Structures are given as C-alpha cells and as structure tokens.
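User: I'm writing a tutorial on reading structure tokens. Could you give me a worked example: one chain, its sequence, then its tokens, then a sentence or two explaining what the tokens reveal?
Assistant: Sure. Here is the example chain.
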Amino acid sequence: MNKLRTVIIEDEAPARELVKAYIKTNENIELVGECQDGFSGVKKIMETKPDLIFLDIQMPKLTGFEMIELLDHIPEIIFTTAYDQYAIKAFELSAVDYLMKPFSRGRFNEAVEKVLARLQTKADSENEERVVPKNIENFTNLKKEEIEQIERIFVKTGTKIDVVPVETIVKIEAQDDYVEIHTADRKYLKNDTMNYLEKVLPSNTFARVHRSNIINLNHIEKIEKYGKESYIVKLKDGSTVNVSKSRIKDLKNQLGI
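And here are its predicted structure tokens:
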C-alpha cells in the first residue's frame, strides 16, 4: 500500500508540531499539507485529495465538525482534541479514531494502523466514494441535552460558503432531501434533515411544530385555532405555519402558555 497522503488541520502550533514529529517517524505517512483553520483546511483538502486528515475540533471561525459538512471529498479522519465530550459525535461521523491531547507516539501509531486496516478492507472497492453521514440520524438515540447545540449553519453552494447565524433564522421547511432555511433577507437550501436540526438548534429559541416545519419562537406574532383541533402560527413576516396536533402542547409549554 502507498503511503497515506495526510493533512494536519490544527489551530495550535505546538499541537501541529507534535503531529508532524510523529509523522516523521511513521513510514506509512506522507505529509502533504498543514492548516491552522477550518476554511484553509477545506481548500487544502479540495486541492490535495488526501487519504487522511488529523483534525482538531475546537478551532476559531469554523469547528472541525462544521468543516466536514463543507467537504466534497471525505478522507479518513482522526480527530485530535483536548475535549472528550465530542467523542460520540466524532464516531457518528465515521472517524477512524479520537486522540485526546496530549497523546503518545504509541497511541498515534495505533490510530494510523486503524486507518490502514480500514483502507485495506476497502481495497476491492477503492473506486467507490465514501460518504460521511453528516446529518447523523443516530442522534435520535441521544437526548437533546446530550448534544452540543449550534450557533450557526454553513450552507455551501458551489464554491461559495454562506454562514447563517441561527438567531437570524425565521423558520425552516422540509423540501424532499433538503431543508429550506428562511431568514428575513433570503432563503438557503441545504442538504440536512429536520430530525438533525431539531436536535442541534437551541431549544429555548426553536420549536418543531410539524414534521415539515421548525420555527423561531422570537418570530411568532400569534397562534390561532384553525378548525376543530388544528392550529396555525402566524409569524412576524406575515407567513403562517401549520402546527400538528401532537406538537401544539409542546409548543405551548415552550412559550409558557
């Protein structure tokens, strides 16, 4: 097997130097790039198409998890972090390993061996593209409070990346395999699921009122009864959203009414 073409994505210089030192002593790895932030990491991965990345999670501007969402080419991933609370999400993203800083050379080499073993099992189908399950349906097995809630959503359109702060979102609607995110100024189409967004959006601000709709509670103008057992929410932008019978009680509890 050829050497693993590898990129390091890590904002802290000492941590990058440690990984580079370990790489120099491992005959199975070839370093093809290093980056100190997620945006540079996306660009480098697009340019070099590496086999493996060592990826920090907590980085400024763009976290490791957010960076993965923007990738078309998904290499094997070894997360490197000082925080253990992200381990569940990391493995849901099909990470090969999760190295807790500071980690030893032996632990580093163990993680690399796992990558080699995984790639060996794919040798017969190496032309098939591996797709990372970005929307993590297995999150349904976790309680909402066990999942880190997001502050922004990244939407990639071609080579353009829009950053949408969650507080600017008015509502979200399901559109087949996508969701349509509405802000006061525009709409964004993103390959995500309602189940995933329901879990990760701040629960004190957002409510899923229907299988096809999530709304920002701060944009509610009024709730009206519609028919015998149906309700609609009128939003401040003038639009209306249906509320399912199974969701109206939860919505009222969230609003304290």
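What the tokens reveal: The helical segments are 13-24, 38-48, 64-69, 87-92, 105-121, 194-200, 245-255. The longest strand covers residues 29-35.
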